[in-house]
Amino acid sequence: MRPVAGRRFRPPTPLKQRVFQFLTWWRARKGHGRTAGDGRVSAVRKLSLDLPQWISPDGKSAFASPFYGNHELVSLQEECMREILSKANRENFPVGLRLLPRGYREHLLAVYAFVRFVDDIGDEAERGDRLRLLDLVESDLIRLYGGSAPHLAPTRALGRTVEACSIPAEPFHRIVEANRRDQSVTRYATFDDLLGYCELSANPIGHIVLHLFGAADRRRLLLADHVCSALQVIEHCQDVGEDYARGRVYLPEQDLRRFGCTEDDLAARTASPGLRRVVALQTGRAARLLERGRTLTASLTGHARVAVAGYVAGGQATLSALERAGHDVLGHAVRPRRGRWLAAWLRLLAARGGSR
């Protein structure tokens, strides 16, 4: 990259990355790594430590037999599912809004559990095992759509949802591919490059949700792409420090250069003026993309409208929270206020709608 004002924005050196990986491994082994919220090592991480021993040496079959005979591994998968679902309350929007019928809530939570599981593998599993574990998930999807019983609990939970809602396989495979990319691509030169990543990591979720409600058509899928890309960019803005600790930077390099940001800015305790301007630029772009959410919500009726309005409102409330924080995403966690979300959600629901 070209220097700005005599300083160069550099990714972490190999030595720094090895030190961070060692500390992450050591803290997890001692019970202080990514936790389930009460000091325990997360179930996803424990599962990732156990699953590789069940991979066949030839790498072709998902698990060495007998998988179902190992009660400890099955129990750990069940713990993993409970832990994943407990994270739903920490998202920027309600995953399974209680106003929705139970069936829809269960379908949405099944999708959330799968996506969260895949993301946690990409973030929390032993670094050398992540690609193999993602391959296991991919093979499990193939089993599911091929009519065989999946091995992994999050994939098994998808079965009823996929069948009842006729959700195609392609969006799920794209989500797995996004996490593969995270293992090798850690920087994005431009905002357009970042949007290309969102086509894998975020946009498929919008397609899944529209299929889930039986509301998928070409126009809505395109509108949903804008909304989901916006929500992904907003989340990247919230997680700048956490992502940098993992060796990833989702803020476009072009914008970091423009405002003279360096590696030290991303590792600081509070956001520098330059970094705040970079974040503000991304949130402005996200806000313009999220405007398509009004059109998408207006085109929907019934339960689909209620759910999608909730997601769009979550993005709007988070943008307000980032603005209130002065776009300082390092000093403290920036979370949306429930009242802001509720007001935005009601406004979206009250807007004049179109026909389905």
The secondary structure category is mainly alpha
- Total count of domains: 2
State the CATH class of the largest domain. Answer: Mainly Alpha
Level-2 CATH architecture of the largest domain: Orthogonal Bundle
- How much of the sequence lies in strands comes to under 5%
How many helix segments?
A: 17
**Mean pLDDT reading:** 81
CATH homologous superfamily caption of the largest domain: Farnesyl Diphosphate Synthase
Number of strands: 0
* Uncertain regions spanning at least 5 consecutive residues: 1-12, 16-40, 57-69
Order of helices and strands: HHHHHHHHHHHHHHHHH
Largest sheet: none
Helix coverage percent: 55-70%
CATH topology of the largest domain: Farnesyl Diphosphate Synthase
What does the model show?
The chain is mainly alpha-helical. It folds into two domains: 142 residues, Orthogonal Bundle (Farnesyl Diphosphate Synthase); 169 residues, Farnesyl Diphosphate Synthase (Orthogonal Bundle). 63% of the residues lie in helices and 0% in strands. The chain is globular, with a radius of gyration of 21 Å.
